[in-house]
UniProtKB/TrEMBL annotation:
Domain Type I restriction modification DNA specificity: 23-209, 226-400
GO biological process: DNA restriction-modification system
Annotated family: Belongs to the type-I restriction system S methylase family.
Organism: Bacteroides finegoldii CL09T03C10
Name of the protein in its database record: Type I restriction modification DNA specificity domain-containing protein
Length: 415
């Protein structure tokens, strides 16, 4: 690729295939796209697995769908028969759909492009903006990436409105511009990014295979055998609450908050924030080998655990399980055991299901019955799982590299 960082010509991207010359044309997005009305059907008016009209809900754009929608690889819900609207516009290959609302400005205007509708009837639904190239200036496959580029996203962020919920409307697109090269160049850009998306999809599947293997082994290797020794959790663990007075400030000191997206091997760093330093005792320090337990949360997150493999300060939103000095129990084995489906289901069954959030008190948690094998078997199991988690961590790191590469190309290949 040719690097154009030093060019004085503003209408070319920083990174470009060397065989292409000349400037890109810049257009207002409203001059390129024709917009169509969308429906406002909620999730309870949709279902999966029927032959009714497919419906693209904005929640799927935010989570789950790739930039390019191919129905052979993507699952869209159907509209329940009694809610099928009287008037609608069917999506065609090359159409785009933007999410018009989000709690995060980075996700407002997030886009998908229909690359292969497979002759199916698809409509755009709640909080989406349905657009179609009315001038035939773009090839199918280019628009999804162009509208995902950083320069386009910056314009969207500047125009999004709201306080807690940010939104855009079709009217905003008259104030947003996009660069469009010749169709041959569009085709090569789209092909490169699509290949990278395929590799990211493959990497996700590799990670899913490791997760599936770990879950399968959990129930086979860890769940109670008759010859195991039986304990209550309070017999082998000290159960502590975290400090509840810390406030997120962006200053010094690590804070671990509620565990939601669980990291199986160590604390999920995405859930770590910063707090003001305060005069705390050692009671709020996390030690290597501690186990964090999400005891106050939404029901689906109750019982999520994380194994601490470095030192932190513990603050709020969870319990800490610290092994009582015990020669016959491995802390990592306890973590593995509590992380099984069997125990997750148990914790969700005994929690107090309040309206806003569920909870488990320390007494009930301490009564949890666990079955522990001899120390040599525990160590063997821990070695196996450490190998699996380390391999999965490496695959996750490679996934992040692929995503960073795509992000770089989206910043450099568009204007």
């Amino acid at each position: 690729m040719a690097n154009n960082n030093n060019t004085k010509n503003l209408n070319v991207p920083n990174l470009r295939f060397p065989e292409f010359k000349g400037e890109w044309e810049k257009y207002k997005v409203s001059d390129i796209l024709e917009f169509f009305p969308t429906n406002s059907l909620s999730w309870d008016q949709l279902e999966y697995g029927t032959d009714n009209i497919y419906n693209l809900h904005y929640g799927l754009i935010h989570k789950g769908l790739p930039t390019q929608i191919e129905l052979v690889n993507c699952s869209l819900p159907n509209i329940k028969k009694e809610f099928i609207p009287k008037n609608y516009t069917l999506c065609k290959d090359g159409d785009v759909a933007f999410a018009d609302a989000s709690e995060d400005t980075n996700d407002v205007g997030k886009v998908v492009e229909f690359l292969s509708c497979e002759n199916k009837n698809i409509v755009c639904g709640l909080h989406t903006i349905h657009g179609r190239d009315k001038k035939n200036l773009t090839i199918n496959g280019f628009k999804g990436y162009a509208f995902s580029s950083e320069i386009f996203r910056c314009q969207i962020r500047c125009l999004s409105q709201g306080t807690k919920i940010y939104s855009i409307s079709p009217k905003n697109f008259k104030d947003i511009s996009i660069g469009v090269p010749a169709k041959e160049e569009q085709s090569k850009i789209a092909a490169l990014l699509r290949l990278l998306d395929y590799r990211i999809e493959a990497q996700n599947k590799i990670i899913e295979k490791y997760e599936s293997l770990i879950k399968g082994l959990n129930e086979k290797l860890l769940i109670n055998k008759k010859e195991y020794t039986t304990y209550q959790l309070s017999d082998i663990c000290e159960i502590r609450s975290g400090y509840s007075g810390a406030q997120l400030t962006g200053t010094q000191g690590l804070m671990v908050s509620r565990i939601e997206t669980i990291s199986k091997h160590c604390i999920n760093l995405d859930k770590v924030g910063y707090v003001k330093p305060f005069n705390s005792s050692a009671d709020f320090k996390l030690h290597i080998g501690d186990i964090l337990f999400s005891n106050i949360n939404s029901v689906q997150y109750i019982g999520n655990t994380a194994f601490v493999d470095r030192e932190y300060n513990l603050y709020h939103g969870m319990n800490l399980l610290r092994l009582i000095p015990h020669k016959t129990v491995e802390p990592f084995y306890i973590f593995l055991l509590l992380n099984t489906i069997t125990y997750k289901s148990y914790f969700q069954s005994i929690c107090n299901k309040a309206i806003s959030q569920a909870s488990i008190n320390q007494t009930e948690l301490g009564k949890t019955v666990i079955h522990i094998p001899d120390l040599s078997y525990q160590k063997q199991i821990c070695l196996v799982y450490n190998s699996l988690y380390n391999k999965k961590s490496l695959e996750n790191l490679y996934l992040q590299v692929l995503k960073q590469q795509k992000s770089y190309l989206l910043r450099q290949m568009f204007i």
